[in-house]
Amino acid sequence: MMPEHSTYKFLEDVDELKWFWTYAMRPLKPHEVYFISTSARNKRLNDAEREYFNVGRSEMWHKEIITGDDYARFLKGIRRCETNRLAYLTKGGIPYPDKVLVLYTNIAPVDAYSAMTKQIDSLIAAQRELVDSVLKNSRQGIEQAYWNIRHSHTTGQSVFARSFSDSEWVDIDSDIEGYDNESGRKAIEGIRDFLCAEPGKGNFMQIGTEGGFHWLVRKSKLSDIGRKYKADPLAVIIQFMRSAFAANGITVNEIIKNKNEMIPLPGTIQYGCNTVRVLNKDDFTEDLRLHDWPDYVEFQPSP
Q: Which of 11, 33, 149, 187 has the most CB atoms less than 10 A away?
């Protein structure tokens, strides 16, 4: 059950990553940063593996904040996630297995100014907790306050994860089963035709993941759908997806707006077996680029 490699591995397809950077990642404003994170999810483990590895339902175990609007820095952030396996261990004291690993990116940049003010509030609260505990002569309170102070840097990272700025996209997460067949392809083609007709070609991305799809819809196009159908535009799209899958006998576990704004990053490996990819790249023309295509090439050490 032990992993084969000494380091965690996430990035599999650099060109896929470059495409996503070019067409999906909105350029940063002066007060914004990008945020990526690594997670372990136990849903691919059997009972024996869950007991052996002792991995929770969802554990975010590393976070990277990329402070510049630069592909090379974004790529280096991913590489910092590919650390020695002994740097991050499960509650069982052993490295995470590949089949639980996911690298997420926030589709919305982080509002660093908002995050900073929230962190200041958090630090003041930690200071107040320590003073109050000393005045009350509460040993337990003092120990807890010092623990919070020691871990204030991780609290700051968590604040950054939740401080969303304006996003180019809205994410619809579809968790489905049994779609890799003729009926599934028919349903998906119908959904794509609907999205080409409504937000429009080049205004949505179909991202294939291990459990279904993330559909990124350009936020600026939603108001037109809302006026046309006189309804919540996301509800219109989600209902169409549900109906298309149901009509073709596809099992739908969940189709929802993804409120945490996190998706598996295209170009990376999900659960050790699936390379996350944008499946409708041909819909996008050069005029839809949000960044120039990166010309950065990583240094390759001699063998």
A: 187
Paired residues of 268 in beta bridges? 11
Against a cut of 0.90, is the pTM above it? Answer: yes
Fill in the amino acid letter for 205.
M
pLDDT digits (tens, 9 = 90+) for 224-270: 999 999 999 999 999 999 999 999 999 999 999 999 999 999 999 99
Answer for the pair 73, 86: CB distance below 8 angstroms, yes or no: no
